[in-house]
Amino acid sequence: MKLSAVTPHQTTPPPRRPASARPSGSGRPLATFGVVTASIAVAFGAGAGSPLFVLYQHEWGFPAWQLTTAFTVYAVTLLATLLVAGSVSDHIGRRPVLVGAMLLLLVTSALFLAADNIGWIIAARAVQGMATGAATSTFTAAIIELASPRHRPVMTVLTSAAPVGGLALGALFAGVAVQTSDHPTAVVFIGLAVVLVYGIASVLAAPETADRHPGVLASLRPRLSVLRAARGWFWSLVPLVAAGWMFSGLFLGLAPSFDSSIFGIHSAAVNGAIVAIQPMAAAVAGIAFGRLAAERATRVGALLVFVGAALAVVGVAAGSLPLVIVGALLGGSGQGAAFGSSLRILGPLADNASRGGLFAAVYLVAYTAYGAPVLLAGIASDFVPLTATVVVYGSVVALLAATAALSLALRARRTDRPWLAEGT
């Protein structure tokens, strides 16, 4: 993996028109709404897996490690796609990437509907990860670029809330479907397919915001493409983004297991609601904190993630569900504040020709933290009690959040006292 510091003359070849020449805020409002809806639907499909996996395990009787594999393969293929194709939309345009990704998600829905064993589910999740990896950063870039300059900060916040909001809606909706329907998989994925078709039509109706230019094959080399101007902030925000998304993985990846084994919850609807609390809090807080200065919001977010992780750990260790719920609410709010403000800080540091690659790097950090620790926790739970696994997991989240809080506080101090930064 290569980290490239992209300079302005490297990312702006002479034949391409300046970014200002592309439509910004001139897209059809209904089409833009459809693009936003489709971005939520992409995450909805991923969040729906948590309650459904428990149902599949009960019906098909596969071991716990295969359940963890079904969760984690999504993150693995998503990360691989981000590494290889995260910058492709900067070269061929946003629309081809988004349409291709949503077509792949339609294939995913078909695989879920045809599944009769865990192998089909793992295959479906692998394809889902590929599609989401191609779509996530591209949706973020496209929605920001479709917004007018006046509305761009609001749309940046909205794009940060869409992934976690979609995860929450998917978990909640799937939990209710499992509880109330004889065919929950059909209810979830046929409904999702309808929204994806609407999303494809919306993307095709919206104006293209990124010019085509050479270099697409070179962009497929695994690397993180981070503009030189953004590198300082990027590395300062890495532990914060990682802490928030790792905390999200705790609930979406492990909550179905500890809800049952530690708290004795066997209702799919209740399980889905508990899983959804953390990402829903993140989505709501991401929008609410959009009114706060981005730099301050990152520091508040780091503290909230730290407190939320600590409460969740204590709640699981003590067998107190209310403490876990409060921890989910506070930590989820911290993730929303942190991630939204991180995108608000980084977004203006890139132009239309490099924004997709920059956001791909951000999401690479996010989804690595979201998936890899859950895989390790799933393996560990075969050898040590689940309670101990969750305590260690939550402690790592708290440590990352504390590291981020310290780093951001020091950065704010250097900003307030410029002479401290001389020579750095």
Automatic annotation (TrEMBL):
The chain crosses the membrane at residues 30-56, 62-85, 97-115, 121-144, 156-178, 184-206, 233-255, 261-288, 300-318, 324-346, 358-380, 386-410. PROSITE patterns: MFS. It is found in: Cell membrane. Residues 1-26 are annotated as: Disordered. Pfam families: MFS_1. Residues 31-413 form the Major facilitator superfamily (MFS) profile domain. Keywords: Cell membrane, Membrane, Plasmid, Transmembrane, Transmembrane helix, Transport. The keyword Cell wall biogenesis/degradation does not apply. Its main location: membrane. It is a multi-pass membrane protein. Gene3D superfamilies: MFS general substrate transporter like domains (1.20.1250.20). This is MFS transporter.
